[in-house]
Amino acid sequence: MITKNNKMKICLLISMVLCLGMNFQSGGYQIGDAVGNFRLKNTDGNMVSLGDYSNVKGVIVIFTSNHCPFARAYEDRIIALNSKFASQGFPVIAINPSDPGTHQDDTFEKMKERSSSKNYGYPYLVDDSQQVAKMFGVGRTPQVYVLQKVGAKFTVRYMGMIDDNPQDPGGVTKLYVDEAVSNLAGGKPVVTTITKPVGCAIKWKN
């Protein structure tokens, strides 16, 4: 039989677990934060860092993966974002934080094959240690961070979904990333700054 005292202990334990969960989810960069530099290996074998992007207005950082159906559904839309906005000073940087030990489709060789076959046109970086994903506070793939270059720093202006319809590109009604970058490129503030990402949960390495 559960006593009143035990009930209180159980409720407290549940509250602590929930708080820990909320703290974990709220970790990483928030809107207005300056992003630290990172350096990761690209599928062409070269190392790419955020610091390499000195002559841009900003970047569209997209955490994605090969195995995730949501990421695959967005692949052509990511390519289209780069085609549209790279020339306006906002290129795409794609980062794969997925553990290939859990998903074989996310090995570096598979990443190279995918980037080559789809002719991405932007870096596809491997986050082997998952430290960059943790630095950003990423929870799912795909998950986007639109960064604006302010002086020498990159500042978070948008984070979340690419648009509001992962399954059907033809059914999209809200182009979150497109609108955010268009506003920044036009010297206007971002209206919708945060949305909840929908995709595959990242499996963290021990």
From TrEMBL:
Report which superkingdom the organism of origin falls in. Answer: Bacteria
Annotated signal sequence range:
1-27
Chain ranges of the Thioredoxin domain: 29-186
Enumerate the UniProt keywords alphabetically. Answer: Signal
Its recorded name reads Thioredoxin family protein
Fetch the InterPro entries from UniProt.
AhpC/TSA, PRX-like1, Thioredoxin-like_sf, Thioredoxin_domain
The family database entries (CDD domains) matched by this protein are listed as: PRX_like1
The organism is: Dyadobacter luticola
Task: Write down a Pfam family by its short name.
Answer: AhpC-TSA
Q: Name one GO molecular function term.
A: oxidoreductase activity
* Keyword Cell wall biogenesis/degradation found: no
